Amino acid sequence: MYTMNAPYSRAAAIASPSATRSRAADPGGTSSPNSMAAAYVACRRLRTYQRWRPGVLGRMCRAGSPATIAAMTYVLVLAAAWGVTTALSMPRGPLTTAEALTSIVISIAVGLAAGRLWRSRWTLLAAPAAFLLALELGRIPVRGPSVDAPHASAFGFVALVAGRGVHGLLSVFPMLLGVSYGRGVAGGWKRLVTGAATAVLLVLTVLVALPARTAPLPGVAELTTVDGLNVMIRGGHTARPVLLFLPGAPGGSELGAMRKHLSALEDSFVVATLDRRGGGASYAALGRTVTMDDAIADTLAVTDYLRTRFHQDKIFLLGHSGGSLVGALTAHRHPERYRAYIGTGQAVDVEASDKLFYADILAWARTGGRTSLVRQLTDQGPPPWKDVYAYEPIMLYENEVYGQRSEFVVDVPEYTLLQKAHTLNAILDTWTLFYPRVQDVDLRREVRSLAVPAYFVQGTNEMRGLAVLFAEWYEALDAPVKRLERFEGAGHRAMFEQPDRFVTFMASLPT
C-alpha cells in the first residue's frame, strides 16, 4: 500500500533521478530555488513520458508554473481583446452577413490560439468568459433590449434569445470549437462531439452566408444601399414614375409584404421600398440615437438618389403608419422633391394616439376580466412611458382589441437568415431609441398645409387611436389637391389587406 507521499515519490523517480536526489538532500522539506526548478523540470518530464489523469498530482505540476501562468494570461488578454473589438465594431452583435462571417472566423482563430497556448480544459471556460466580460463592459453605453439587462417579459425573452443568443451562436460557439481543436481532439466520444459541432458550424456558416436576392424584372430589380440604408428597387419599366415607400413601426421592414401583396404596383411605378434606419437590412445602421430629423434626412438622401438615378425631378412619396409621420413632415419641409404625398394608416400625434390605445385596451381588459392586465395598466398609468417594455401591453393586444390583421412576412428571399432572426429585436431596439423622441410630434400643429397634392387611403376599420386624430387633421389640412379613399372592411394595413384596390387607386393618380 502506498502512503500519501508515495505518488509524489514515484512521479519524481520516473521523471528524473536527479529530482529524487534533490529531495533527499533536503530532508527537512525546505524549498530552495534550485529544488523548485528541479520539481518543475520533473513535472515537465512526467507530462512527456506519462499520460496521467487530472488530480492532485496534475494540479501540483500545472497550477503554479510560470509557463502556465503566462499561457493563462495570454489567453485571457487575447479573448478580452476580441471582446473589446466586438463591442466597438458591432455592439449589438453581428447584424450583417459580413459581420457574422467575420465573427465566426475570428472567434475560431482566437479559440484555436487559446487552446494551443493553454492546453488546460479550463481554457474552454476562461476564453469565452473573458470575451463575454469584455464585450458586456465595452458596450455599456449602447442602449436597447438586445444589449440591456434581461427583462422578465415576453419581449425580454425574445430580446435575450435573438440578441445574446444569436451573438453567442456566432462567437462563443465557434470559439469553443477552436479551443477544442487547439487543445487537441481526444478519441472516443469527445471526437464525436467535436465532429458533430464542426458539422453544425459549417451548416450554420453556409446558411448565414446565403445572400438576400430579389427576382429579376425587365426594368430594374435589385437590393442596394444608400447611405448605409437598404432599399429594394423594383419596376417593370425604368421610365415609369418613381414611388418611394416608407414603412411603419420603428425598426419594422415591409420588403416581404411588398413582394407578397403589391408586386402588381411595379407595372405602374418604379417602387423603392426603404428599410428605415434600424429596420430590416438597415438594422446595422442604428446608432446610439435616432431622431425625427435623422429619419427625414435619410428620406431625403434616398429621394435624391432615386431622382438622380432615374432622371426624375420629382417622385411620389408613400408613407404607412409610423412612416406616414416621417413622410408628411418630409413632404411639408421639402415639397420641391415630390410629385405628391400618399398616406395610409396615417399617424398624426403619437402621444395622443397612445393615450387612446391605453384607454381602449384598459376598458377591453376590464370587460373581459383580465385582472393581471388591468393591474399592469393601472399601475403604469397612461403613456408616455420610459421604455419599450411599458408599451408591451399595447403592442401585444391592440390587434385583438381592434380586430386587426397582423403579419410578419419574412419567408421571402429578400431577407437573409440574420435579418429574419433579428426581425423583432430590430423593432425593440429602434423603438427604444426613436419612440421617446417623437412624442412631441403633432401634425395638427406642424403640418397644417402641404404644397403638394395629398392623397390618403384609410380602412373603415382603422384603430380609433389613429382614425379620430386623422379625421381632425385631414379636415383642417390645406393642399392643392386633397383626396381620401376609404377601403370598406380594411383596417390599419389597408394597402396590404386589399392590394388590388390599392394598386388601382395608385395607378389613377395623375403623373
TrEMBL record:
Keyword Magnesium listed: no
Superkingdom as given in the UniProt entry: Bacteria
Coiled-coil spans in chain: none
Transmembrane segments: 69-89, 95-115, 122-142, 154-180, 192-212
Keywords: Membrane, Transmembrane, Transmembrane helix
Name of the protein this chain belongs to: Serine aminopeptidase S33 domain-containing protein
Annotated GO CC locations: membrane
Keyword check for Transmembrane: yes
